[in-house]
Amino acid sequence: MSKISKFFKGGGSAASKGRKGPSPQEALARLRETEEMLSKKQEYLETRIERELAVARQHGTKNRRAALQALKRKKRYEKQLSQIDGTLSTIEFQREALENSHTNTEVLKNMGYAAQAMKKVHENMDLNKIDDLMQDITEQQDVAQEISDAISNRATFGDEFGEDELMAELEELEQEELNKGMRDVRLPSVPSTSLPSRPARRRPEDEDEMKKLAAWAS
């Protein structure tokens, strides 16, 4: 049996029925009732004190005996009021302590239930099986990672052809395109008319005649 379970000897409703004395809830209810009763008594005493003061003022020196009796009653009421204040402080302290104790008890009880539940869950667990399971999970994660890496790698289809062979074929295609372009070029046609012939060289006698004409014209 765990320590928390031993703290609650037996626990459950059977132990509660066999327990002597009021429950924490019952004690707290009684303390609150007492506080309410004493608060009402305070209000009553405060009213009586104000009334006795009024009587003392009313009689004053005219009826000294009645005034003094009123002041004596006021003093007794004030003493009772002071006692009630002290009693209320004690009850308030006791109530707070009981509330805290009840809260702690409930917390420990719930922690005990949780500890028992955890123990029951762990009874069906084998540490060796857990280690094997975690190892299997790790292995499967590695396999999944390898598959992902293989899928994401660039495909290498066509790598069985040599690069030199492909370059030669590419150059051949480029040469064919160049030859085709040359065939499509049109050269200018040869003119059908004959070109003017070179002027004939003048003879010396023709030059003499041209000089004579020039002299005559001048």
Automatic annotation (TrEMBL):
A biological-process GO annotation? late endosome to vacuole transport via multivesicular body sorting pathway
Would you indicate the residue range of the signal peptide? none
Keyword hit for Metal-binding: no
A Pfam match: Snf7
Q: How does it sit in the membrane?
A: Peripheral membrane protein
**Does the entry feature the keyword Cell division, yes or no?**
no
Q: Quote the subcellular location field of this record.
A: Cytoplasm, Cytosol; Late endosome membrane
Compositional bias of kind Basic and acidic residues: 177-186, 202-212
Annotated region Disordered: the residues are 1-26, 177-218
Which Gene Ontology terms of cellular component type are present?
Answer: cytoplasmic side of plasma membrane; cytosol; ESCRT III complex; late endosome membrane; multivesicular body
Chief localization: cytoplasm
Q: Which keywords does this chain's UniProt record carry?
A: Coiled coil, Cytoplasm, Endosome, Membrane, Protein transport, Transport
Checking PANTHER family in the record gives:
CHARGED MULTIVESICULAR BODY PROTEIN (PTHR22761), CHARGED MULTIVESICULAR BODY PROTEIN 4C (PTHR22761:SF77)
Q: Which family does it belong to?
A: Belongs to the SNF7 family.
Protein name stated in the entry: CHM4C protein
Question: What organism is this sequence from?
Answer: Grallaria varia
Q: What is the lineage of its organism?
A: Eukaryota, Metazoa, Chordata, Craniata, Vertebrata
